[in-house]
Specification:
The protein is of the alpha/beta class. The chain is 27% helix and 14% strand. It has one domain. It has seven helices and eight strands. The termini are far apart. Pfam families: His_Phos_1.
Length: 331
């Protein structure tokens, strides 16, 4: 992108004029989901898998199916954009979400394709890829400054600064342009953007802190559904991600003449720091969302933890159910 584009782009974000009452809004609302991929073979084995292309387990596939059905059917959400890491555990999770979107909304809504991006990959663990995370070698080496002087071929892990740079590039290229879009339609005619970003636990944490840095401290709120007892960490470190769990936030235009529902949080940036999105407010709606996994049991006999193979029969086909059995909770 050229320099002039960035100048115009950031000018629109930084100097967006306040709107008079009754005027059509240039920006209604964005709903943003930061989603972790389904369970993988290396999650089960307890191995450090950053850029290694881990396969989903059978249980992980069931998790992705639950997630897709939950967003499309239970929440009735029409996704407008789906971004995913180009590692298969992430993009297959995203494809399952897209599949459910298509089944539910294809007749009335343009279902987006999954955009696969290397920018959304997990942290590269270097020479520690596929080393047991609890091993002494991994625990002693997991610092950005570590270098094994006895091994000239040792490759250190990716730094947090490099991950932040990737997060910034992704936001600039893919998310912030959506917030800068100007519509000529009335609010009633706007289709709010609903964006899913499917990535990996450590990178999602960096992406969240990068997103947070774009807002004024006074514009960030915790939604009423978030339990402050269970989610009382400092805001930059608030979210956590189990497999297929998500952080859900909304981004809206600030309305200074109305009170904002929710709890004001401790400052993350000073209002004088001029964050890019100084005319937007961010509300945290869901932290570690996993309602879609309620009641899901791992298939017994080790099948749930084995890598998924598209060529195999569906899991229910491995077993013949007795006619008298009515309780399916074990599967």
């Amino acid at each position: 992108m050229c320099h002039n584009f960035f100048y115009r782009f950031y000018s629109r974000l930084l100097h967006h004029p306040e709107q008079a009452p009754g005027q059509p809004s240039e920006f209604s609302q964005m709903r943003l989901f930061l989603v972790r991929h389904g369970e993988t073979e290396h999650n089960v084995a307890g191995l450090l898998a950053g850029v290694s292309d881990s396969r989903l387990t059978n249980h992980g596939v069931l998790q992705t199916q639950r997630l897709g059905a939950y967003l499309a059917t239970h929440r009735n959400l029409k996704l407008t954009h789906i971004f995913a890491s180009d590692l298969q555990r992430a993009y297959l999770t995203a494809e399952e979400v897209r599949k459910h979107q298509s089944s539910r909304w294809a007749d009335v809504h343009r279902v987006p394709d999954v955009v696969r991006l290397a920018l959304l990959r997990e942290q590269d663990f270097g020479s520690l890829e596929l080393v047991p995370w609890a091993s002494r070698r991994a625990q002693s080496a997991l610092t950005p400054q570590h270098h094994d002087v006895q091994d000239p071929h040792f490759r250190p892990q990716e730094t947090k600064e490099a991950m932040t740079s990737r997060a910034e590039e992704f936001l600039i290229n893919s998310v912030l342009p959506l917030l800068a879009t100007v519509s000529d339609h009335s609010d009633a005619d706007l289709t709010p953007d609903c964006v899913a970003i499917v990535s990996h636990g450590l990178f999602l944490a960096v992406l969240w802190r990068t997103i947070l840095s774009k807002f004024r401290a006074s514009s960030v709120r915790m939604g009423p559904e978030v339990d402050p007892v269970h989610h009382n960490k400092p805001l930059p470190y608030l979210p956590s991600w189990g497999n297929t769990s998500f952080l859900e936030v909304t981004i809206e235009a600030r309305q200074h003449n109305r009170s904002i529902q929710g709890r004001e949080l401790s400052p993350t940036t000073r209002d004088g720091d001029h964050p890019i999105l100084n005319d937007r407010k961010l509300t945290i709606v869901t932290v570690n969302g996993r309602d879609h996994l309620a009641g899901l049991k791992r298939t017994r006999g080790g099948l749930g933890s084995t890598p998924h193979d598209e060529r195999q029969k569906r899991l229910d086909g491995f077993f013949k159910r007795p006619k008298a059995t009515t309780d399916d909770s074990a599967t």
